[in-house]
Amino acid sequence: MARTPPLWMLLPLLWASTGAWTEKVSVRAPAEVYSFLSYTAKLPCSLRPLEPNTTEVTQITWLRQEPSGKRRIVAAFHPLRGPHVSEPDRDRMEFAAARQGANPLDGSLTIHRMRPEDEANYTCEITTFPWGTGSASTWLRLFYAPQVSISRSDVPGQQGRKETILTCDVRSNPEPKGYEWSTTTGPLPSSAVPQGSRLLIQPTEESINTTFICRVSNAVGTGQAARRVLLPAPTAKEVVAVWAPGEVHGFLGDTVKLPCNLRFPESKPQNVTQITWKRILESGHVMFTAAEWGHNLLDASLSVHRLHPEDDANYTCEITTLQEGSYSATTWLRVFYAPQVFISRSDTTGQQGRYETTLTCNARGNPEPKSYDWNTTMGSLPPSAVPQGSRLLIQHTEESINATFICHVSNDLGTGQAAMRVEFPAVQQLH
Q: How would DSSP label each residue in 152-192?
């Protein structure tokens, strides 16, 4: 039975004059096309010659913009030699209407069995005689439920103790709405602290033999993954422990305190010889952030002033005692802030020297940005500028461009913006 997309996905194709116009020929394509994982998508592209009886198509070329910014030819059609599709997409792409031996005015491309990596900007270029080349671009947006896997890392401590971090690795479109951690037997044990996409499993006096589940949802559906964790019980002498909260929250520019205390029974008093704070970066590198004292200090709490986005990390407090050695506990410091935004630019060159300019709105914030809005200092966008989420595609036409483009990005805490001026001359008409 055929699957029915959600109602919010049943959007009309946004057709616009996105083609590069010459005096005699233009190419039309929708600014966006929507599809779903494993579905079939059609990228419409048609020639609109002003003088059809005197226009002969000599070649149709489809190009895809790769993540590096470069454009790669994925398919081409020649009226005499027929179609050619590049590997590895030869068995998934085909021209929908163009046929060998005819004058193909319809260059639409069909893509079967959609994959996540198919989401990209596609440019349809149609070369004609005698009027030259026209082109138009389409952003193929692929929507799919979360694809989930769980990775594990262990932070070893002294005396054989360790902390385990499970990370829920997800790719999806749209972005995940939330992460839910559980086990095959129900709720999490008290030693497991959920931290968004991460689960911190702290050492306890009990062994752990549990299968943990990460469930992730977005507007399309839900995905999940499971991973079994087996941790032996500590030795009997490990009655000394370091306590720290699972999470501490702070805002950009604030000062926060990361609590850390040594706990031990009255029958086993401890003399602290060293306190060490470590920050675990995403790269896995460990950086020392605090030092040692030469006197007995049972409270090893650390204050972090003037919080930066880079301060968002796992912090490990390690306390060394003369009697028992070293013990540690980990806290996730979460730093929340409105989006910080900057714009980058890339220019690509098509056939016949035609250009396209792509502005990318790069934003970071916590929580993640919810929306991207484009305009100019003069108000609305010009017709040649097509917003594509965090990207803005500006096509070079007979009209010159001299405008300052603004990207506004919002999350639950506020809005950030950045601006970039773009200037280029009009495309010369062919006579």
A: EEEEE-GGG-EEEEEEEEEEEES--SEEEEEETTBSPPTTE
